[in-house]
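COURSE: Structural Biology Practicum
ASSIGNMENT: Worksheet 4, Part C
STUDENT ID: 0417
INSTRUCTIONS: Below are two proteins. For each, the amino acid sequence is given first, followed by its structure token string. Answer the questions at the end about the second protein only.

PROTEIN I
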Amino acid sequence: MTNSTAHAGHRDRLRARFADAGGAGLADYELLELALFRSIPRRDVKPIAKELLDRFGDLGRVCAASVQDLSEIKGISEKAALDLKLIEVLAIRMARGKVTGRVVLSNWSALLDYLRTALQHTATEQFRVLFLDKKNRLIADEHQAQGTVDHAPVYPREVLKRALALNASAIILVHNHPSGDPTPSRADIEMTRLIVNAAKPFNIMIHDHLVIGREQTASFKGLGLL
């Protein structure tokens, strides 16, 4: 049996298992294999899939890695890296679709799922603002700042300027801690206080400030900080 025949047989068997049992029946590296079949058509991708997981840690971090970092893995071309990035974008879009235009406060679990999908694996700190209308429906989710591994510059004036432009009645602040620990820092608390005070004259409510960690999410409201 030639290598190409063996690879084809393995791919057919893996696809058949996926068709029969879905993702629940496959290991993470096998799901990565399936994702890589089209972008790497004539090579055994099992070692590549396993190396990706060894390098980045889990499926989420594989797909959240930069094209440059992914391309450092032997066998991963720019095309293959972009195919993996597409998985990340699709996952985020699907999660966001469950909250866009809906009443956020009554879809809190879906909101947290979306934010974790979008932020829990990013390597640098990002600050986002969710703008809500008077019925607390999500009207915009905007990326306000991106920084280093432990800091993203945030300007309360710009946050409020955008809220007024969107005619928003309420705001949810969100940022991630790439360290994995969602505990709010002193700088996080001070920045939140500045935004809350700036919003008061305009009757704009700050519903919460969520800090997304690797495994958990901290809520300023839940912690009594709002």
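PROTEIN II
(use this one for the questions)
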Amino acid sequence: MALYPIFVELKGRPVIVIGGGHVGAEKVRGLLAAEADITLVSPELIEELREHVEAGRIRHIERAYAEPDLDGGYEFVMVATDDGAINAEVAAAGKKRGLWVNAADDPKNCDFILPAVVRKGKITLAASTSGTSPALARRLREELDAYLTEDMPALADLLSEVRLEMRAKGIKVENDTWQYAIDEQLRVLLAQRKLVAARARLIERLGIELAPAGGGA
């Protein structure tokens, strides 16, 4: 597969999931994290999915998939069955309607694949083997999770906060200056939860003037 990696905003966008087993549950977990509007089609559900239905987090069509199910205004289709014939049928029907289709562990019937994902705070890391090795994708996810130390989400929050303040004041610095400012000492301060000192160090190394944490304009 020739893949172009992107992150898609799914909040509030309609997605249909076909399959009520453990693979379907895995798809639903990711979609709920992205705040998608989820409809699931399956005659049966595992307990995890039934709890989501009862809590009102997803809608459930309690029967086997039929092609007209794709006519509900959905933007993405996720097939979570182990039936290659259904995967191919849904992929063909989706293409006919201009829908993006993902079929679990079946790259030839996919318009897009789902990478292994690690999320911590505002940081999301994704890794893919182009659908060739789920085992390696899982190993990559575990290593990425270990790489994202506890100071990373705090660093992302601090950089976002300072960047927004700079933008509001019309302050700009070169990309290389940002790289210079994000040094080991800054990360140590964040890991120690010394947020005020970390902000002060970042501002100093950026060579700009901003109010201290909690200060006025």
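ANSWER KEY EXCERPT:
Q1: Residues 203 and 209 are 7 Å apart (CA to CA).
Q2: The mean pLDDT is 90.
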